[in-house]
């Protein structure tokens, strides 16, 4: 349950998720849906509507003393998510135990929000419903839990939200309203077509619910706009208006709509549970209400601040130092200096701008600015070059010649043509030697003099390239996107870049730890790629025989 740590702090399932094994031993109707994995772990098939319903009913019974019935053809709520919403409403209205009066728009067959609010906090509810089946089940669930004195379930006409529901409730001021609106605009959206990011995995749980529960004209965006329209007429009849959203993209346009209408108090939050995210929006026309702060970006900031790291073990440091002592640093240099010098040499060969910056004792730091991606698919490009070499036509066998003609051939350089095999062997051993004057025209690199050959060879051969390492801040050679006159001279002043990061190299006992801290840029995946490239190249260098 990846998002449980971000649940509302008062959610009982935040640090103690449901124990399926215990619940199965106590409730036979739940036990029949629990499966045991090969490791002995109790599991539930969340794509089975009956299993999901059994879990919801069991949790409500075990943790809240509520007994409910839900038809399979109607929406089956998840308890942790609904509990998150209840706790947020507590934050809005300022208290858990005080008697409050609320409205649940579209209460559903389970009537779960009124049942939780009434049983936990003693809140009174007006619960509205347009669907006949849901209305009947909601009334039954309220009555069998003996909460009819706190919860009033009313049947309202189709498309009714707040205005019509409050016609007979004139003069009453409600503390809040809650709403779980239909998320989808049509059947295709409900099936996940054109409404779900293609990179996201498919939903892990079944999508249940009647048409009126999951679909509405214009989807959740237009549905909530209708609630906003009603609130502009009702204004202070409710202290807080709120609704839950299934799509994050709906949040910004709704907040903009409230801003245009001059609504003075607006806030929002996130509901995190399991692998599901939901968002909620609330607004008020009262000046004296306390507005809870929107969720801080603590989760995202923690993720952003966590550096990418890898450890270079002491034997690897020793190997790097012995193999590159003549080109990197002196024999007596520290482990941190050895790895830092290797990083500087590799980054220079990759045309990544970098310079040393002040840092703490016993560590070194480099400030990196990547202007172009020169580290991706290096080995793949080298294999493609070798493939092209293998496909070259072989030279025909030389005819038998007498000793005299052989002597003549030795004196004639035009007859000495290299074979494809020799060229391939030459590419594997001396890739930098394949210049434009030695390789055939169809495999020569037209950008070689611009430093493009860095994409065609492994890093362990970088020392053979013709890229001159003048200083740690060597200018990047010109590319298609930049000319020599526009390329920056320093990684800290460049205006065009993919990303910037800070690399810390520090000793940890006998080993060396390399940390890459994100600063800014287009995509953190690029820094991740570079980190993986540096780590793999360093370990390959250390593992190759001298």
TrEMBL record:
GO terms for molecular function: mRNA m(6)A methyltransferase activity; RNA binding; U6 snRNA (adenine-(43)-N(6))-methyltransferase activity. It is found in: Cytoplasm; Nucleus. InterPro entries: METTL16/PsiM (IPR017182), METTL16/RlmF (IPR010286), SAM-dependent_MTases_sf (IPR029063). GO terms for biological process: mRNA processing; positive regulation of catabolic process; positive regulation of RNA metabolic process; regulation of mRNA stability; rRNA base methylation. Residues 403-420, 460-482 have a biased composition (Polar residues). CDD domains: AdoMet_MTases (cd02440). Its EC number is 2.1.1.-. It comes from the Eukaryota. Residues 483-492 have a biased composition (Low complexity). Pfam families: Methyltransf_10 (PF05971). RNA N6-methyltransferase that methylates adenosine residues at the N(6) position of a subset of RNAs and is involved in S-adenosyl-L-methionine homeostasis by regulating expression of MAT2A transcripts. Able to N6-methylate a subset of mRNAs and U6 small nuclear RNAs (U6 snRNAs). In contrast to the METTL3-METTL14 heterodimer, only able to methylate a limited number of RNAs: requires both a 5'UACAGAGAA-3' nonamer sequence and a specific RNA structure. Belongs to the methyltransferase superfamily. METTL16/RlmF family. This is U6 small nuclear RNA (adenine-(43)-N(6))-methyltransferase. The lineage of its organism: Eukaryota, Metazoa, Chordata, Craniata, Vertebrata.
